[in-house]
Amino acid sequence: MRLTVPPRALLLLLPVAVLLVGVSAAMHLWGLATPGGVPFDGYERLLQVLDADAETTLPTWFSAGVLLVGALLLLDAARTARALGDRAWRSWAVLAAAFAYLSADEGSRLHEAGSALLDRAGVDTGLRFSWVVVALPLVVALAAAMVPFLRRLPPRTAGTLLLAGAFYVGGAVGLEVLSGAVVDATAVGSAPYVLVSSLEELCEMVGAVLLAWAVADHQDRLLGADGTAVPVARAAAPAQPAAAS
Q1: Number of neighbours of residue 241 by Cβ within 10 angstroms
Q2: Residue 72 pLDDT
Q3: pLDDT band for position 185 (50/70/90)?
Q4: Among positive and negative, which fits the CA dihedral 157, 162, 166, 169?
Q5: Cβ within 8 Å of residue 2, ≥6 positions away
Q6: CA nearest 90: which of 79, 100, 99?
Q7: Tens digits of per-residue pLDDT, 194-236?
Q8: Any stretches that span the bilayer, and where are they (predicted)?
Q9: Is 124 left (phi over 0), alpha (psi -120 to 50) or beta?
Q10: In whole angstroms, how far apart are CA 58 and each of 2, 3, 54, 81, 145?
Q11: Confidence tier at 15 by pLDDT (50, 70, 90)
Q12: Would you list the DSSP string of the chain?
């Protein structure tokens, strides 16, 4: 049984992402603009629920949930590709594992352990968030390994996956580096930091939604109306030329 998620339904998650990040940023900026930093009773408790830049909050669980949906869709694509006799199923499976990890990391901030290990080892990366030094080579290696896989996909699927990757990596790595520089120049919680970190979280969410949409759309166009994957017939071997008499 295949995992069926309407692609159009996934696109509805984009405005939800904008709303969650926008509310979080507005709450932070409101607090910064208010003497004492507490605009109303219950503000701090509400911020603990709505903060997009913290663990175990509504935006964080939303992001982790979208990544998990993406991982499940990728796993379903791997199963389908294997049923069709397509060797690309391994690439789908690798991506599924990667996004399952990202989903777990989103809620638990596992990547921060990398920064802690580098700090304990006395490695000076020159970056506030030193885990980027570990993550970037892994991202580049994965991207390079996926080039042949992407070339075999339909242009629409490959293009959307590339766009999703650009949003996600640009936010998770690129804007993370920028936010570290902003912290060094100002402070955690400053208005510039709030804006950069909010954009970072939004890019990650948009990337996750686009990936889920790309895979769901690919599956919809690949499979028949009944959702059954039919193995592709192998091409017949070329006929041998008749021997000259």
Answers
A1: 6
A2: 97
A3: confident
A4: positive
A5: 76, 79, 80, 219, 223, 227, 229
A6: 79
A7: 999 999 999 999 999 999 999 999 999 988 545 555 443 333 4
A8: 58-75, 129-149, 161-181
A9: beta
A10: 29, 25, 10, 34, 34
A11: very high
A12: ------HHHHHTHHHHHHHHHHHHHHHHHHHHHSTTS--STTHHHHHHHH-TTSSSSHHHHHHHHHHHHHHHHHHHHHHHHHHTT-TTHHHHHHHHHHHHHHHHHHHH-THHHHHHHHHHTT---S-SSTHHHHHHHHHHHHHHHTHHHHHHS-HHHHHHHHHHHHHHHIIIIIIHHHHHHHHHHS-TTSHHHHHHHHHHHHHHHHHHHHHHHHHHHHHHHHS-TT----PPPPPPPPPPPPPP-
Q: How far apart are CA 148 and CA 137, in angstroms?
A: 19
132: tokens are 């980027």
Whose tokens are 């208005």? That residue is 191
Average pLDDT rounded to a whole number, residues 99-117: 73
Rg of the Cα trace of the chain? 22
Token pair in block for residue 231: 């193995």
The CA dihedral of 159, 162, 167, 171, to the nearest 10 degrees, is: -170
Query: 106: closest CA among 172, 193, 188?
Result: 172
Owner of token pair 């021997």: 243
User: Token pair 């389908």 is at which residue?
Assistant: 80
**Res. 114: pLDDT tops 70:** no
Contact between 138 and 114 (Cβ < 8 Å): no
